[in-house]
Amino acid sequence: MVSLTSRMKSILLLLLEADYSRPITIKEIAKKLNVSSRTILRDMPSIEEWLNQNKISFIKKPGVGLLLGENLESKNKLKRFLEQQSVPKDYSPEERKYVIIAELLQIKEPIKLYYFSNLLGVAEGTLSSDLDKVEEWFQNYNIKLIRRPGFGIYVEGKETDFRKAMVNLLYENLDEGQLLQIIKDNVGNTSNSKGRIEINARNRLLSLIDKNTIENLEKLVYAAEKKMNLQLADSAYVGLIVHLALALQRLKNNEKITINKDLLEELRATQEYNMAKHLAKDISVLFDLEIPEDEIGYITMHLKGAKLRIDNKEEERLIIGKFELIKVAKEMIRIAEEETGYALQHNEKVLLGLVNHLGPAISRLKMNLDIRNPLLSKIKENYPTIYKISEKSAQVLKEFLNVEIPESEIGYIALHLGAAIENEREKEQRLYRVAVVCASGIGTSRLLAARLEKEFKNIQVVDIISSIHLDDKLLREKNIELIISTIEMESSIKTVYVNPLLLDEDKTKIEQALKELKEVTEKTEDMQEKKNFKDVLVLIEEYTKASIELLNNLSFYEKILVNDIEGLITKVAQIYADSDEQQKILEYELKRRERLGSTILNNKGIILLHCRSESIKKLQLGFVCLDKGIDYMFMGNRKERIDIAIIMLAPANCSKAYLEVVSEISRALIEKPDFVEAIKDCDKEQICIQISNIIEGFYYEKMNLLRGRKNEYEHTN
């Protein structure tokens, strides 16, 4: 009597799908089951015998294929029968590898070979080959596979390496989406998920993390997010819960992690440590398990490397003051611009995105935490040029941190730079509408127009006119963006004067003009919805009020005595709040902002404290000079002496124009060394002069852009 195996059942189900018009071949069956044709041929005698036992007609058509010679009713009956049959699982070589790894990571004692032989249904010879692959996998994590004949097999290594191996074992077989679904379903029904391995093998992997543990941890992390007023990105949310679940399982088995004492000391000084401490306390109470301080340090490392979920407005707010990251990001963007020839340095979106990505990425790199990028292979395959450019840009990060940058992080950098590059490519494809003005005759004009369209693929000559018939209003109706003229003349439309023969220096002038047009377009993108003069006036009023408000609320405080950053924040809240209640609100907002990352001018002794708050009614820019400096841990790895605090405060519901004015001061801290030196020296007079110049330059730049909108309005009416 032939018994059904898992593979035989799969073959029979495929035969049921075949019919006289579409027989199925051995090769097709093998491909669908991801095995060799030889394996299927070995199973066919048993298949035929089973079909004979059950009196089912089996047809072999040489050179055509196989099928069952039964009617539809009989086939449906057989299908229902097969689906109800519970048969032993046949593991693929890859599944066997992962099952063995999962078992070895969980069981302390040596395991006999026959245990795996029975579990997986394979001979010991096959198992020996599987163990070679398992050993190779463990070597990636500095874990040693010990094979002792007659005694068994087991693994040796550091607890940190065991944890890393366990996490990666899960991520190799379940993507973040599946893990998130498992967490949200509290490890419910995962049968609909399709990973790299079948459900039986996956369930053995999920035994690494306990169902009830996941359920309770998910609630604790969610509560911690609310308490700290933060929102982790899905990847960070999943990563933290997986880490905590594995840590708890290991602690229950008395497998404790140790962390370098100097690193632990540095981590204690970070905002993330407080969150980790509160989380550990809640976990300890709920699970009745003591959480060692080394474990709290390890949780802190994961929190420091966690990416937050932020929207575009929050992204703009968070970038204010991230001086070191802005410098790194700007240099990375500059290299990408140099490599591509596209104007990327004026792209605020790519700067915002890259800066806010680099914060947690740098923390992970410095602490040697894994950076996973499920899109890496697709990025390298579909965008090889952008990936290569990102490799060069990543050298800036390598030099900044003095660590190797993994491909996964380069892939993330490629996503940010790639979006900007693709955007520039689209812009380059658009044609600039040009009018040619000549006084030498129609022949010369047409020759110049032909040369222009040949030399510049992004120029479309819309009109050829004489200087006598020049009419700006008519040209604007035709959406002319640029006039190229062989004679001097007056026009409100941007004009380039060239030689009729179009010399090399003329081409350079035209290229510069097109670049300027492009930059103006980019800078005025956020104003494109301003359709009439009234809207322009409203925006001018916003910038004017914001500039005046900032200049009117400039303040200086000297010889302020505090002991630490907490005391400094409390003092600032006392100074700028109007009541005890408002002080509590402001203090909370400032501390919340600090938790998102400190803002320190490296080696300058200057910290920036900033936030938007309901307790603030008007823009505030202040300079607090400390009587005695305070030590503060910067970027989690070194102490910085703080002597001066720059205070930037804005109302919670202030407009974008107000934030732009504040951002201009922040930008000057990076780009204007004289301004920083004046602050460092607490030179009130020089600080006031510098701020006045900064705001004046910003204001007139905005007015020029808006004046361009006004001229456009005038010439379309």
From TrEMBL:
Q: Where is the PTS EIIB type-2 domain?
A: 432-522
Q: Where is the signal peptide?
A: none
Q: Mind listing the GO biological process terms from this record?
A: phosphoenolpyruvate-dependent sugar phosphotransferase system; regulation of DNA-templated transcription
Which residues lie in coiled coils?
503-530
Q: What region holds the PRD domain?
A: 208-313, 320-427
The answer to keyword tRNA-binding applying to this record is no
> Does Transmembrane helix appear among the keywords?
no
Q: What is this protein called?
A: BglG family transcriptional antiterminator
- Keyword annotations from UniProtKB, A to Z: Coiled coil, Repeat, Transcription, Transcription regulation, Transferase
Q: What positions does the domain PTS EIIA type-2 occupy?
A: 549-698
PANTHER family named in the record: CRYPTIC BETA-GLUCOSIDE BGL OPERON ANTITERMINATOR, TRANSCRIPTIONAL REGULATOR MTLR
CDD domains to which the protein is assigned, alphabetical: PTS_IIB_bgl_like (cd05568)
GO MF terms here are: protein-N(PI)-phosphohistidine-sugar phosphotransferase activity
Q: From which organism does this entry originate?
A: Fonticella tunisiensis
The record's listing under SUPFAM superfamilies reads:
Phoshotransferase/anion transport protein, PTS system IIB component-like, PTS-regulatory domain, PRD, Winged helix' DNA-binding domain
Lineage runs: Bacteria, Bacillati, Bacillota, Clostridia, Eubacteriales
